[in-house]
Write a structure and sequence with these properties.
Helix 2 runs antiparallel to helix 8 and helix 5 packs antiparallel against helix 10. About 40% of the residues lie in helices and about 15% in strands. It is an alpha/beta fold. The strands form three sheets. A five-stranded parallel beta sheet has the order 7-6-5-8-9, with helices on both faces. The chain is built from 16 helices and eleven strands.
Length: about 450
């Protein structure tokens, strides 16, 4: 195990000395090119927002720079080689910001937020930006705000984000959608779905910010990259808030995610901890809102579908005709490129956890045949091997289904396993238990005739 420190730098003129502890492995993360332009997609994001009439604040830029540190550390420091238990890393960040006092006051909640999200041990230090970068964002013009946007929403190219986009547009909102341009399959899905929305709602002035943020392999010397990306939602949320600070008003960043996957209750005892992602968990969102309050940012993050299953989201979508037309272009699969090993193109595998939830939801909510192409097209065609990928998630769901069938009252206890629900009222906790039970019910209907066993 090694402790790592990522130190953000603002170009060759940034020569401040940063003390490091004995045993820390140091990586310098350069943010400014020779042309004094922000790198890693940040300069492009600033330019794109300016064209849309959106002018983020210095604190907003600080937040995106912090997210870049987090994203670099999370994706370029291997859990296998750099931790004692093959999971928990010790990571320190040194982030240049515009207001050290303001950021330091928010450190405690920030560290709590990150530790919960990724399962690592984070230490965050802040230092002042170099003098020539004390003011780094374009100032808002003196004339009244010309931005048309009255809403912000994450837009991943997935089914839930499509439903969120349709519902918002049908309600008359003018959203600015926030996307991260990751690997090719996700980017293709985002583009196809967004173009479909543009075609249907032609003449409406909604827009999209896509941030392209990737770091080279080998950024951290002699360390392999990390593929689990548990911290990815920090970048997504931070990009949305970054844009929100440029709206010159209080804002809500909407995170469309069905309640079953947001809770992400472990399906079996082996899933507790490292395998239980927390990217939209209620505790995580609550800590973000506490964090924004500590920074003095007039914004909130909300999941409008926290009490809905994915099937219910489909059934209640404000334009089911449009949804049916675009649904096949959305991407839910955890590993859409693995079909290449079988000679196929990029497509849904049909048997990973998000694919199973998708299949069950479309079966429950659309009331029609599923237009999605799955590598494993018929789950019931053969006995699935639980020692192979095609049967592992099915068996885990079957375990959870049977557990809840025998003792339905367990739902009110199981929802607490992924993380604390101390921010939720008793009534909301009852609603969370109920959405968990209904979500498992959707999966049970899908798997009623599916057989799995070890071979």
């Amino acid at each position: 195990m090694r402790r790592h420190v990522i130190i953000g730098r603002f170009g060759s003129g940034d020569r401040i000395s940063i003390p490091t502890a004995s045993g820390e492995t140091v990586t310098r993360l350069e943010f400014v090119t020779a042309a004094r332009r922000f790198d890693h997609g940040i300069g492009d994001a600033l330019d794109d927002l300016t064209k849309l009439g959106v002018f983020p604040t210095e604190i907003g830029l600080d937040l995106l720079l912090l997210a870049a540190h987090v994203h670099a550390a999370d994706t370029r420091i291997s859990r296998t080689s750099e931790s004692q238990d093959n999971w928990t890393r010790e990571i320190r960040l040194v982030v240049p910001v515009s207001d050290v006092t303001r950021w330091t006051s928010a450190t405690t909640v920030l560290v709590r937020l990150l530790n919960f999200l990724t399962g690592d041990l984070w230490t965050i230090d802040f230092r002042a930006r170099p003098r020539k970068f004390e003011s780094a964002v374009q100032q808002r013009p003196a004339e009244p705000n010309t931005s048309p946007f009255d809403d912000l929403a994450l837009f991943s190219g997935g089914l839930d984000s499509l439903i969120g986009a349709i519902d918002g547009l049908e309600q008359g909102r003018t959203p600015l959608f926030i996307s991260h341009a990751g690997e090719g399959a996700t980017s293709d899905s985002q583009n196809t779905v967004f173009k479909g929305l543009q075609k249907h709602y032609s003449g409406r002035p909604f827009g999209r910010l896509r941030i392209w943020m990737n770091f080279p392999d080998g950024l951290v010397r002699n360390v392999a990259v990390e593929r689990t990306t548990r911290g990815r939602s920090f970048l997504f949320f931070a990009t949305g808030v970054f844009a929100g600070t440029g709206l010159n008003r209080a804002f809500v960043l909407r995170v469309p995610e069905n309640g079953l996957i947001a809770l992400n209750v472990p399906l079996d005892p082996l899933r507790l901890g490292a395998l239980s992602t927390r990217t939209t968990h209620p505790f995580y969102i609550a800590r973000w809102n506490e964090f924004l309050n500590a920074l003095g940012i007039s914004g909130r993050i909300e999941n409008p579908y926290w009490d809905k299953t994915k099937g219910e989201m489909i059934a209640n979508c404000a334009n089911r005709t449009l949804l049916s037309r675009l649904i096949a272009s959305t991407l839910s699969c955890a590993s859409p490129t693995k079909a290449r090993w079988l000679g196929h193109g990029i497509q849904h595998c049909g048997f990973c956890l998000p694919c199973l939830i998708r299949r069950a939801a479309i079966r429950s909510g659309l009331g029609a045949s599923d237009p999605t192409t799955y590598t494993l097209s018929n789950l019931a065609a053969k006995v699935l091997d639980t020692h192979q990928a095609e049967g592992q998630q099915v068996r885990s769901f079957q375990y959870a289904i049977e557990r809840l069938r025998q003792k339905p009252q367990l739902a009110s206890l199981l929802i607490h396993k992924p993380g604390p629900l101390s921010d939720e009222t008793p009534a909301r906790q009852v609603a969370l238990a109920d959405v968990y039970s209904r979500g498992i019910g959707e999966i049970a209907a899908l798997l009623a005739s599916v057989r799995s066993e070890p071979k």
